[in-house]
Design a protein that fits this description.
With 122 residues, the protein is α+β, with helices and mostly antiparallel strands. The chain has a single domain (2-121), classed as Alpha-Beta Complex (Cathepsin B, Chain A), CATH 3.90.70.10. It is built from three helices and six strands. The chain has helices at 2-10, 24-32, 108-112, and strands spanning 15-18, 37-44, 47-73, 76-96, 104-107, 115-121. It has a six-stranded antiparallel β-sheet with strand order 1-6-2-3-4-5. Strand 4 and strand 5 (104-107) form a beta hairpin. The two termini are 15 Å apart.
């Protein structure tokens, strides 16, 4: 990450750093201000890689939830499973990865699990 900071400084860029992973709303606020995030991620047991986070969207996804319900029967009551759906907002990040041919979309949780360090380009 120091090399990237050096390149930014050489070309007059400013940056700030933060300890990742931020929560999705912090990422949204940074990106909404027009500031991309350079994220260092773990790519192997002893190696890292960088990607640029340039967008975030929140999708509503229905998630099944199973709860037991007490149901009366002629022989007494029995517990039976009941499935209902809960709508959750799931964040997805749009990233540019220099090892990929184009932009990619990954879930926030997927990236957060390997996110090590960050630079916000001011």
């Amino acid at each position: 990450m120091q090399e990237i900071q050096g390149v930014l400084a050489r070309f007059g860029g400013q940056w700030s750093t933060f300890a990742p992973p931020l929560n999705p709303m912090n990422v949204y606020n940074i990106l909404s201000a027009g500031k991309p995030i350079i994220a260092e991620i773990t790519s192997g047991p002893a190696s890292t890689h960088v990607v640029v986070i340039r967008g975030i969207t929140f999708r509503q996804i229905q998630v099944p939830v199973q709860t037991p319900v007490l149901v009366p029967t002629p022989y007494g009551s029995m517990w039976q499973p009941h499935v209902h759906y809960v709508v959750q907002q799931i964040p997805f990040l749009e990233i540019n990865d220099p090892l990929q041919p184009g932009p990619m979309e990954v879930s926030y949780d997927q990236l957060a699990s390997v996110w090590r360090d960050s630079i916000v380009v001011e």
